[in-house]
Structure formats: structure tokens, C-alpha cells
Amino acid sequence: MRLKTLGVVVVTALALFTVFYWVSDPSRLSERQAQASKDLIAYGERVFANNKTDASAAQCARCHGDNGQGGPVPGTKNLAPNLHSASIAKKLKVNPDYVHEVISYGGVVVSGNVNSDMPAWSTDVGGPLTVQQIDALTALVTGWAEEAATQSQAPVANTADAGHQVFLARCASCHAADLSGGVGPNIQNIGNALVTTGLPVPPSGLKQMQADYAKDKKTFFTQWIRDSTNNYNGGTATGMPAFPASDLTDDQLQALITFLLTQKK
Ligand code: HEC
Ligand code: HEC
Question: Atom 42 (ligand 1): residue with closest C-alpha?
């Protein structure tokens, strides 16, 4: 009789231990955490999307582009920044809550401009988004920023193919994948000649652009891409964002220019 009781106790203890082990097994725990963070990012993508029929969508994509690559703010001449950005990763190192704060309280956190085009989203300050939605967007944008920071450390070969990849990731949202134009002009012949007519914001430095291009195309492209607004339009926004070295490495820029020089029609 005693022995039977002991048997039951031992078997029960073993069963409990197995269940406990199964639940707390480190590999299974991290699997579950990975799945949870995947689910959170997938939800973030839904909230980010410009989907008018999905009530949970905040339509961040309306300004930041379908994939967060940046684009024009509708109805203004201003630009919403690219969110695949190593500079955001840098800000996160200084303030781990940076992305969460910008989304919660708006563009004022970025620029100090209380009239920033980017509104506040948190219900705490009268915005439309719940804590869950903001957490999901934070996970999404943080992932993009970290990926960009990792990529920006990898060397990029100075080839037209590598430059083409940079173009697709950074420029195609405005100039189209085949360079035929959209928000920005058609640049399919940019290896042969500048576009001087029909530009959305005719730059005040157009003569200088032509002179620089005639003298040394690489120097022209560097100045234009790094900061067209200050280098060729006296500080007035051209409609093309600046790409400082913190956002587009020298390697990436060189490869991109190599690619642009091959574009001749
Ligand atoms: C009406 C246009 C608009 C919408 C909609 C919008 N943004 Fe923005 N966003 C901007 C602008 C413009 C800035 C730059 C703010 C500034 O400098 O004042 C910005 C800045 C940001 C930044 C900081 C970027 C950096 O480089 O530091 C993040 C992150 C961001 N937005 C995320 C979002 C998310 C997530 C949503 C959706 C909930 C969203 N934005 C919706 C226009 C918009
Ligand atoms: C947010 C939209 C946007 C993005 C992103 C963008 N551009 Fe532009 N780009 C423009 C606009 C708008 C113009 C015309 C500027 C003007 O009207 O003054 C332009 C003009 C140009 C020109 C000059 C055309 C000429 O001959 O006068 C070049 C070259 C160019 N872009 C290359 C690029 C490259 C390379 C990238 C990626 C690193 C890029 N652009 C990303 C909007 C964009």
C-alpha cells in the first residue's frame, strides 16, 4: 500500500516536472518571444499602411511612403523623412524611447517645431492611437532603423549593380524604379544630360548646376544628392530630400553615382 502511494507521488512529481520544464524551456521561451515580436511587427505594418478600409490603420504611409522610405507630405512642399535610417538608430542609442516619444507626441520631438507636419498620435494627448498600436509601430520603426544601421556598416562595392540596389531602396519612391519619374523628374538620361525643364521647383542655381555637371559629373551628383536645397537652391527646399553621410554612406553614394552615369537614353 505504501509503495503504491509512493509510486503515485513519484509519477505525479515527474509529470509536473515535465510540464514545468516544457513551459519554461529556454529555447521554447525564446521561440515564443520571437513569435510575439513578429506578431507585434505584423500588427505595426497594418497600423502603418495607407489602408482606408482598415479601422486600425493610422496611415503613416500617407506621408512616409508605403514602405517607410519617405516622401512628400500631401498638400505641402515638405517631406516626411525616410524611417529606414541609421540616424534614427543613433538617436535611439542616446534615448531608447526616442521612436516611442516621436510617435506619441509628434514631430515636435524631432524638430522642436510645434507646428510640425507630423501630429501627435497618443490618446494621452488627444491623438487617435492606443498604447498597443503605438508599441507595434515603435517595434516596426525600431527594426527598420536597426536594419539600416547594420547595412550602413557593410561595405558597398562601387559597381553599377550595387548602385542600382541603392537607387531602388532610396530613390525609386520618387523617381520610379525605371527612373521614369513621379514626384521627381524622369532621370533616364541623367548620364548624358541634366533635366532643366519642367522641374517642380526650378532651382535658383540652375546655371551653376549646368556648369558643375559639364565640368565634373561626379562632383555635381555628390553636391546635388547630399544637399540640393543648400547647394543649388539658396536654402529653399527643392522637393528632393538631403542625403547626409549619416543617412547615405560614402560607399553607397559612390555606387549610386556609378549607376547614374550608366543611365543614357
Ligand atoms: C502628415 C504627414 C505625416 C504623417 C501622417 C506621419 N508622419 Fe511621421 N513625420 C512627418 C514629418 C514631416 C516628420 C519630421 C518631423 C519634423 O521634423 O518636424 C516625421 C517624423 C517622424 C519620425 C522621426 C524620424 C526621425 O528621423 O527622427 C518618426 C519615427 C515618424 N515620423 C513615424 C511616424 C509614424 C509611425 C506615423 C503613423 C502613426 C507617422 N510618422 C505619420 C510626417 C508625418
Ligand atoms: C522625396 C522625393 C525624392 C527622393 C526620395 C529623391 N528625389 Fe531626386 N528629385 C526629386 C525632385 C522633386 C527633384 C526636382 C527638384 C527641383 O525641382 O528642384 C529631384 C531631382 C533630382 C535630380 C536632378 C535632375 C536634374 O537633372 O535637374 C537628380 C539627379 C536626382 N533627383 C537624383 C536622385 C537620387 C540619386 C535619389 C536617391 C538618393 C533621389 N533623387 C531621391 C525628388 C526626390
Answer: 118
